[in-house]
Amino acid sequence: MLWFTEHWTENVGLTVRATEVKRIQSKYQEILILDTPEFGKMLVLDGLIQTTEKDEFIYHEMLAHPAMLMHKKPERVLVIGGGDGGTVREVLKHETVKEVHLCEIDEEVIIVSEKYFPSIAGKLKDPRVKIFIEDGNRFLEEKKDYYDVIIMDSSDPVGASEVLFSEDFYKKVKQSLRKDGIMVAQTESPVLQENYFKKAYSQITKVFRNVGVYLAYVPTYPSGMWSFTIASDYVDVSSASVNKSRIDRLETRYFCDKIFDCLFALPKFVQDMLKKP
Amino acid sequence: MLWFTEHWTENVGLTVRATEVKRIQSKYQEILILDTPEFGKMLVLDGLIQTTEKDEFIYHEMLAHPAMLMHKKPERVLVIGGGDGGTVREVLKHETVKEVHLCEIDEEVIIVSEKYFPSIAGKLKDPRVKIFIEDGNRFLEEKKDYYDVIIMDSSDPVGASEVLFSEDFYKKVKQSLRKDGIMVAQTESPVLQENYFKKAYSQITKVFRNVGVYLAYVPTYPSGMWSFTIASDYVDVSSASVNKSRIDRLETRYFCDKIFDCLFALPKFVQDMLKKP
Questions:
Q1: Contacts of B15 in chain A (CB under 8 A)
Q2: Cα distance from B95 to chain A (closest Cα, Å)?
Q3: A148 annotated as belonging to a binding site for a ligand
Q4: Which domain CATH number covers B31?
Q5: Which of A221-225, A232-236, A241-245, B2-6 has the lowest mean pLDDT?
Q6: How many domains is chain B built from?
Q7: Which of A15, A217, A261 is closest, CB to CB, to B265?
Q8: For the residues A51-65, what does the mean pLDDT come to?
Q9: What distance in Å separates the CA atoms of residue B196 and residue B228, rounded to the nearest whole number?
Q10: Residue range B146-171: average pLDDT?
C-alpha cells in the first residue's frame, strides 16, 4: 500500500493513502498528482498538498468571496498564484466581473490542472480570463491603479513565494489597486505556522489602514485551521456589510451569509497572536 | 525516530513524532502516554488521540462553556466520560456550580491523567467533584430530575461508547435533567465521520425539542473540524443570549463572547447534512 506523508512540521504530518501517482518536474518545482481514496485527486507541489477534489471548495470559496463581496462592484480582479484555477472559478461567480487576470509563475501547474483537475481549472478558458506566466512581484510593477480586488493565492512562503509575504510586495499590491480596492491573502496556519501568520499580519498592517483576519476549516492543510488576511485603505473590512441577495446568488458549498456575518469571530488565542507582534 | 499514526479512516491519518511512550493495558482499553515535541504530552486510548497538552483547551472549553452559559444558574453538573478531567476543570470555572459528578467507566484513565496530565486533571480533587467509576448508561437510571447540565465527553462511538450515541441513552439523559436542563455531546467530525455526526443529530432530535450543532477547530482530532450537539426541551439553544459579564469572567484561551455569538454559523455543507437525515 502506498502512503504519502506531508510533513506539516518536522514533528507532525498528514498521511494519505494513494492508489496512483504521477510525477512531473517543472522548472520551479516537483508536481505530484495523487489519486487518493479519501480526498479524490490531489495536487502536491514540492511535497505540500495544494488542493484536493474533496475539500478544495472550502479554501477557494473562503479566499475569494469575502473580498469580492466587500467591494461594491468588482470588475477587474487579479489572482496571483492559484494556477489550479479554483480561485478564478469562484471570482467568476460574481456577475459584475469583466476581467480576471491570473498571474502564475509556473505554467506547468496550469497545464497539469487543466488536464487532471477539470472541475477546478475548468473556468480558466472563460473569455473574461487572461493568463500571465510571470513572477507576481514583477507583474505588479506594470499595473498601477488598476484592480478592484487582488487575491494572493500563493503557496507557502518558502522559495519562489517568500517575496509574496514581504512589506515591499504589499506596497506594490496597494499601488496596483484602485482607490477603493481590496486585497486578500492566504496567510498560513496560526496553529502550526504562527510566525508566518503573524509576520504577514504585521507587514500588511504597515501598508493598509484596515486589516482583518479570518479562518476556515481546511482538512488537508496544516492543523486544519487556515487563515486569510484581508485589507483595504478605503473599505473598513472588519465592519463591511453586504446586501444578502448578492451572497444568496452565489452557488457555494461552504460560504454563506452566516459565515460572512461571523467572519471575524476569532478564537481568543488567535486574537492574542495579532496583539503581540 | 519514533512515529505514532492515528488512522482517522483507513485512508488518512495523523502522524506525530514521539520521544517517549508509556503503555498501560486497563480492563477496557490500551492507554498510551506519548511525549511529543509538537503537542506536548498526549493521551491515546485504543489508538485514538484523546487529548494533548497543546490543544486540549479548545475541545474542553468548547464542550463545556456554551451549555453552562445557556443555563441560567447551573448548580449540578454531570460529565459522562471525560476521565482526563479537562471538562470538569472548565465546568468549575462557573461560580454557580455546587456539585460536579464525573461518571467514567475506566478508573485507569483517571489515575493516568492525575499522574501524567496534572494541568488537565488537577481539578478532580476539588471538593465539589464526586467521581463515579461506572457505566454512564447505567448510572443515569438512578438519577431522575437531578442535573442542570449533562455533558457527554465520550470517546468515539465504538466499543464501550457506542451506546452513548443511541436514542435510548438520550432519553435517559433527558430524564436525569431537571425541567430546564441542557445537554451537550461531542459528536465527531462532519468531514470524516459524517455518519456518526448525522446519527447523533437525528437521535438527539427525536428526544429533545431544541437542538443546535456547533463546531470548533481541534487540530489533533480527525480533519480538525469537530462537532458538538447541544439540546434542551426548555431552553431554545439556538437563540439563547447570555449576559456578557458571565462570559468575560471565564478564563479561557479559545472561547469568548464573539465565539459564543457566532456559535451556530455553520458552513453550508454542514447545514445540509443536518437537513438530510
A1: 5, 12-15
A2: 21
A3: no
A4: 2.30.140.10
A5: A241-245
A6: 2
A7: A261
A8: 98
A9: 12
A10: 87
